[in-house]
Amino acid sequence: DGGITQSPKYLFRKEGQNVTLSCEQNLNHDAMYWYRQDPGQGLRLIYYSQIVNDFQKGDIAEGYSVSREKKESFPLTVTSAQKNPTAFYLCASSSAGGQPQHFGDGTRLSIL
Amino acid sequence: QKEVEQNSGPLSVPEGAIASLNCTYSDRGSQSFFWYRQYSGKSPELIMFIYSNGDKEDGRFTAQLNKASQYVSLLIRDSQPSDSATYLCAALNYVDKIIFGKGTRLHILP
User: Fold this and answer.
1) B29-53 per-position pLDDT tens digit
2) Which of B31, B96, B101 faces A96 most closely, judged by CB atoms?
3) Arithmetic mean of pLDDT, A15-31
4) pLDDT tens digit string along A27-81?
5) B44 and A103 in contact by Cβ < 8 A?
6) Which of B31, B44, B101 sits opposite A98 (nearest CB)?
7) What is the 8-class DSSP label of residue B84?
8) Is the dihedral of CA B66, B69, B70, B75 positive or negative?
C-alpha cells in the first residue's frame, strides 16, 4: 500500500535533548512537508522540500532542522533550542503541479 | 499576508440535514482548493479538491468554488454522526505554496 509513514507515534523529550521524527513515503512524491499543530490551532509549516538535497524554511523553522538525502525520506530534528516543542507533528507529501498534500498519521511529542 | 479564513464553529447540524462549510481566501493567485477532514487526535484526510469555478460532486460531498468572490464551500448532504470532525480548507497557488485555514468544527446532532 502506498502511503506516508511517520514514527514514532508518541515521543517524549527530556530537557536539553534533540529528538528526530521520521517520515518516509513510497508515493514517489517530489515534495515533502513538516507541520506543527497545537491544540485547537491550524497547521503551521516548519520546513518543506521540493527536491532531494534542497529544503526551505517555513513559517516557524527556529529550533528545528531537516535533511532530504533521499526522495523517500524527510526526517525532522527538534533541537533543544525549541523551547516549546510539545505539539502534534505532521508530515505530508505531494507531487508537483497543483496536487494535494497527503498526510502521515502524525507524531505526538511531549516534554518529560 | 496570504490567508485562508474559516469560521471556527462549532457548527451544529441535525443528522440527515445538509451541512454547509465556508472558506474565503485572500491570494488571487490560488489555483487549487482542497477540503480535509480531521478527526480529533488524527491527521487530516483529503476528501475533496476543486480547480474550476462551479460545483464538484463526490457522493454526499459537493465542493463549490467562486474565484471572483474568492470563496470556497463544502456541502455535506444527509449528514451522519461520523461526519463530526474539523474540516480544513486549503488554497494552493501557482508556485505550489499551500495555505491552510484553521478549520471549522462540525457537530452532527443525532
Assistant:
1) 899 999 999 999 999 999 999 999 9
2) B96
3) 94
4) 999 999 999 999 878 899 999 999 999 999 999 999 999 999 999 999 999 998 8
5) yes
6) B31
7) -
8) negative
Interface contact A42-B43, CB threshold 8 A: no
Quick check: B49 and A100 CB within 8 A?
Answer: yes
Residue B2 pLDDT level (bands cut at 50, 70, 90): confident
What percent of chain B lies above the pLDDT cut of 70? 100
Strands A19-25 and A4-7 turn out to be antiparallel
Set of chain A residues whose Cβ sits within 8 Å of the Cβ of B102: 41-42
* Residue linked to cell 465542493: B63
Record the cell numbers describing residue A20, joined without a space: 528526530
Is residue A58 a contact partner of residue B12, using CB atoms and an 8 Å limit?
Answer: no
Length of chain A as a residue count: 112
Residue of B nearest to A6 (CA): B43
Q: Which chain A residues are Cβ-neighbours of B51 within 8 angstroms?
A: 98
Q: Which long-range contacts (CB under 8 A, 24 or more apart) does A1-7 make?
A: A2/A26, A2/A27, A3/A27, A3/A102, A3/A104, A4/A91, A4/A92, A4/A93, A4/A102, A4/A103, A4/A104, A5/A104, A5/A105, A6/A89, A6/A90, A6/A91, A6/A104, A6/A105, A6/A106, A6/A107, A7/A107
Residues in chain B: 110
> Would you say B27 and B99 are in contact if contact means Cβ atoms under 8 Å apart?
yes
* Model confidence pLDDT, tens digit, residues B56-92: 999 999 999 999 999 999 999 999 999 999 999 999 9
